[in-house]
Design goal:
The complex is a heterodimer of chains A (304) and B (344).
Chain A lengths: L1 H28 L12 H10 L6 H13 L14 H36 L4 H15 L2 H15 L11 H31 L2 H8 L4 H14 L6 H18 L5 H8 L5 H29 L7
Chain B lengths: L16 H5 L8 H11 L1 H23 L2 H5 L6 H4 L16 E2 L8 E2 H4 L19 H37 L1 H15 L3 H12 L3 H27 L3 H8 L4 H12 L1 H24 L11 H8 L8 H28 L1 H4 L2
Antiparallel strand pairs in B: 1-2
The chains are: A mainly alpha (304), B mainly alpha (344).
Chain lengths: 304, 344
Amino acid sequence: MWKYILKRLVLMIFTLFLVITATFFLMQIMPGTPFNNPKLTPEALAQLKTTYGLDLPLWQQYLNYLVGAAHGDFGISFQYQNQPVSMLIGQRLPVSAQLGAQALVVGVIVGLFMGAISARNKNNKIDGVSGILSTLGISVPSFILGIILVYLFGFKWPLFPVSGWGTFSQTILPTLALAASPAAVTTRFVRSEMIESLGSDYVQLAKAKGLSDKEIVNKHAYRNSMIPVLTLIGPMAAALLTGSTLIEQIFSIPGIGQQFVLSIPSKDFPVIMGTTIVYAAMLMVMILITDILTAIVDPRVRLQ
Amino acid sequence: MMAANTEDFVIVGAQSSDANEHIAKPALSFWQDAWRRLKLNKLAVISMWFLIFIMAFAVVSNILVPQKAANSFNSDKVGVYKNLPPNSGLPIPGWDGKIKAPGDNSATDVYASQGVPDGKKFILGTDNIGRSVAKRVIVGLRISLLVAIVATLIDLLIGVAYGVFSGWKGGWIDNVMQRIIEILSSIPNLIIVTMLGLLLGSGVLSIILAIAMTGWLSMARQVRNMTLSLKERDYVLAAKSLGESSTKIAIKHLIPNMAGTIIVQVMMTVPNAIMFEAVLSAINLGVKPPTASLGSLIADAQAMLQFYPYQILIPAVMLVLISLAFILLGDGLRDAFDPRASED
């Protein structure tokens, strides 16, 4: 087990190293930097380049960046001068993490309920309705759902605030918009897992020894269908990352997604690079946690 | 021992070869069988016809609504034609050229107040510089479909080739190739798409490439797993011992046998590509204006959502319907190809 975790950690660090290297060199060949302004005098340009360490040879810039990144230092923002990227990201990370966690928890809980209910009502109306809802949840991208929610509950029936962050009511609409997709994925998954469990030998045995339907479902079928849901958390986290950037923009939430989107038109490369690395690290940690949890909970998963 | 008197028995025909070998149903090939099962799934069939219709429409619309007609606007008359609500010419509330301003209960006839000449109607309204939303959506639909389908085809080519090669070679080559997939898939797609978008600049081709770069991973993984199991089959062994080359075995035996999985995977890739196109547009890395895509139409109309929701409604509905149709058809095909799954 420990060997497995160690191996994964090493692979993760190696991947992060590759990501940092790739982003660094990609940024070197990106067209257009904020220093292309023709109004800049040569002296001012040289001054700027020294500030950002761009006058050093490339390999030295790369080493500096690598060492800095290992310490969580991603340089200074082009756009907001004097602001280290790590500070910009650090301020915004908790907001994005809270939004993502809320959406994940709401989505998974709703999905667990809906999946179990549809499996127990297989092929009747309740299953049908939940099937329609979960298919819609998968095919409506979260930013479109976000726009719909803004229109309906922000403008048409102004029940919730549609922008900003801080109070609980401000988190409701963005959380709902983001939670729909994980809820739908979980519903579909739990439903098919549960139908499989209900037809399995151990459920037959439980029936044969005279357990009530309720006990069979709660004690045997449901528990065994919940384990594989863990494997979904990794991919869902990836989807949440994508979704949250646009959702943060739509709802004006000061998270790292919004920062990322704002940095693109202004070509604020240090911020883009820093965000990229943080995103990749977050996703990798989520996938690692998912895999370890799955291995702990389900001994059938063989660790190689 | 009593000898049985054969005359006491009557032959009922249980042994007759005719009765034994009569086949009640015609023999169906894999594809015929899948098609028969798919036809039972109404939603999948409706989705299939919808998609065929949309794609045919997108092709034909090249003649009916050229790109120029949708992009051009009369700069002198922007004030007259801008932000006109949908007008069907019939007294249907919400579709009669009248719109309610927020906080106002009476609808105003915008066509009259902006001085639009009589008889001029925009069935889906106009945007903020007076271009017909209907035309913009048709052109946008075309671009979005083009982006999604071409990106998916690239994914298909890379994914299948990579997967078959990796699975067929096995050993350290497979190991290295799988690690590469693992590394690439631990980078969020959004990041890869954004980076490539930044690098290649905006434009249809660069969007296609950016989206294609992320989509092939899951295809490659699935094809590789299928290859691992299929290459142990007897027919592959037979082909090998007959001296068939590896390339030929892959093309003639492996790929046809995993066609079902591949088709289902393609159906799931297209909606993803459509969504990523929209995401790119929303973060200013999409198609260059005045070109429109469903994503750019949604992104552009979002600023005025409170006042002109109709401008966002149509492209958003189109985008969702197309994704939905692909997903439903994909689900239907998966069940049709794998009868065990549909027994649930």
